[in-house]
Amino acid sequence: MTPANAKIASERVPPEHISIRIEGSEISWAGPHPFEDGFSLGSDDGMVAFTDEKGKITDKPQVMALSHEAINGVAGFDNWVAASTRQEVTVLTLPKRSGDKAALATFSQGAHGVLASSSKQFVAPLGHAGLMMVNPSEGPQTSFCTYPFGDGSINIYQVQEMPGNGTHNLFVAACRSHGVGLIELSSDKQAVEFDRCNLNGIDVVDVVPVGNATYPHAVVAVGIGGEVMLFRDIVKHEDPIFLKYAQFVGKTYRILSSWGHLFVLTSKAIYVLGNVANRLTQPSLGDHDSPVMTLPMAAIDANICGNRWLLAVMQDEVHRYDIRQIHDKIAEFPASPLPRIRLNSGDWNGAKANFGLLLTAAG
Amino acid sequence: MPILAMDEVHQEVTRRNGYRYQFTRKHHGADPKAAQWLPSLSLADEFSVFNLADEHELSDEDGRLYGILRTPVEGVQFLGTRDEQVAEFPVASGNEAWHGYPVYPLANEQATGRGGQAGRPAKAVFQKMEGVGLLSKQERKRLMKGKYA
Question: Mind listing the pLDDT tens digit for each residue in A310-344?
C-alpha cells in the first residue's frame, strides 16, 4: 500500500460507537426517550427502561407488556407512555404525584410499533387489522379505535406522521405489497381517508418523512429488496424517483433520515446515503455524485434519536453512533451518481377505511 | 400453487414420525377469510415445512408444530398471502392426516380461530428453531417482535 492509499484507508475508519445494555435482559427495541434527552429501551421480555444519552439507566426498568413479549415500540407524551408488542398495545398513565400508583391499560391486539401523534394520541400499525388510535385519559378508562383498510386486505406495517393542516393529521404508511399509503385523519377522528401509491412488484417495508418548509410532504420509502423510492410531494401524488444501489446486501429492514442523509438498515449493514434526503427537498435532485458509507453489522432494528444519535439494536446490546461524526466522515467515502432506475409503477388508488371500532380498556 | 378443488392427502409421510399430511382447500383458495398459502409455493415445499417441523420437534406446549422454509441465498421465505413466514400445524385428531396454514405474526383478539390471524407462535418455538440452527439469533429476535426475518 502506498502512503497515499494508506492515508485514504485510515480516513475511512468507520465511526465509533458506544455499547448500551440492560443488565439481565436482551434489548429488542431502542428509540428516543419520550420526555427528555436520552433513550427508551425495550426488552425481549416486555420490560421498558429509560436512559440518558450515555446509556446509563435513569429509571428502574419496568414491565410494560404483561404478556412478557418483546417490545417493538415505545412512545409517550404528557404523562402517558405506550409500548407495543406482537401481542398487545399497553398505555401507562404515570402518577402526577409521588406516592400515587401508575395505571396500565392493555389492548389485546398485536402491533408492529407505536408512535405519539402531534394531536396527542397513540397510533399503532396493526398489519392487516389496520391502524389503532388510542386516546388516553385521566379517567379509569382509555378508549381506542381500530381502522381496517380495504376490507383487511391492506397491510399497515409502518406508519410515520407528516405535517398536517391543523384540522387533519396526516400519516404515511408502508403497506408492503400494496405500496405506500397516505392516511388523513380529521381532528374529530370521525373521518379517515386513505390513498395508496401502488408500486407493483415492490414489498414496501418502511417510510420516512424528510420534508422541509418548501417541500413539507417529501417522503422516502424502501422496499425489502433495497429499492429506494423518493417522493418529493406525496400529497400531490407526484411520481416517485426510484434508486437501486448495487452495493446493498441483505434484506432491507428500515429507512431513517437525519442531517439530510438517509440510513438504510439491512440484515447485513447500515448504508448511509449522503445528502440524498437534502437533495430530494431541492427543486431538482441534480446529477452530482453522492457518497455511500457502509457500516457492516447484523442489527435487529435501528432508530434515530434527537437528530443526533443513531441507535442500532444488535443481538445483545445497542450501538450508539454520533450522527455528527457520520456527517463529518461521509464525504471521505466513495461517491457515485445516484443509481436511478425506471419502473412502471406509481399509480394511485383510494381505499376505504371501513369503520372505527371504538372500544375501551380499564385503566 | 394452487387453488385446490378438494383436500388432498400427500403421498409422502414425515421422516421422523411418519405423520400423514393433507393439503386443504380451506387454505388453498376456498376460504378467503382463512390464512392462505402463497400461490407460488409448491405443495412439495408446503410439505417440506411440515416435515422439517416434525423432524426437529418444533412444537408449542399444546403439541402444535411450527415450521419455516429457508433458502441458502434468501434466508427465511414468505409462506402466506399476508406476509407470514411461519406455518402452524395443529395436532391431528384420531387417524386424520395433519394439515397446516401460515400463521400471522401479530395477535388479533377480534379474529376467530387459530387459522386466521390469531396464531402468534409461542416464544419457545422460535427458541427451538434457533437451537436447531434453522434461525439465526438475529432472525429469531426479529420474528419474536412480529417483524419479518
Answer: 999 999 999 999 999 999 999 999 999 999 987 77
Question: Does B40 contact chain A (CB < 8 Å)?
Answer: no
A32-51 per-position pLDDT tens digit: 999 999 999 999 999 999 99
Tell me the C-alpha distance between A170 and A162, whole Å: 5
Closest C-alpha to B2, from B44, B39, B45: B39
Question: Are B138 and A298 inside 8 Å of each other by CB?
Answer: yes
pTM of the predicted model as reported, rounded to 2 decimal places: 0.93
Exposure string for B88-110, b = 16+ CB within 10 A, e = fewer: bbbeeeeeebbbbbbbbbbbbee
A292 three-class SS: strand
- Judge whether A267 and A275 are in contact, CB under 8 Å: no
Distance in Å from the first CA to the final CA of chain B: 23
Cα dihedral angle (A212, A134, A120, A187), rounded to 10 degrees?
Answer: 70
How far is the C-alpha of A276 from the C-alpha of A287, rounded, in Å?
Answer: 12
Going across the sheet that includes A261-266, the strands are A252-258, A261-266, A269-273, A290-296, A335-336
Mean pLDDT estimate for chain B: 92
From B122, which residue of chain A is nearest by alpha-carbon distance? Answer: A69
Contact call for A28 and B106, based on CB within 8 A: no
Contacts of B149 in chain A (CB under 8 A): 251
Contacts of B106 in chain A (CB under 8 A): 86-87, 109-112, 126-127, 129
Q: Which of B141, B143, B148 to mutate to test the interface with A (most CBs of A within 10 A)?
A: B141
CB nearest to B109's CB, from A108, A111, A203 = A108
Nearest CA in chain A to B124: A69
Question: Under an 8 A CB cutoff, do B144 and A69 touch?
Answer: yes
A126: closest CA of chain B, how far (Å) = 8
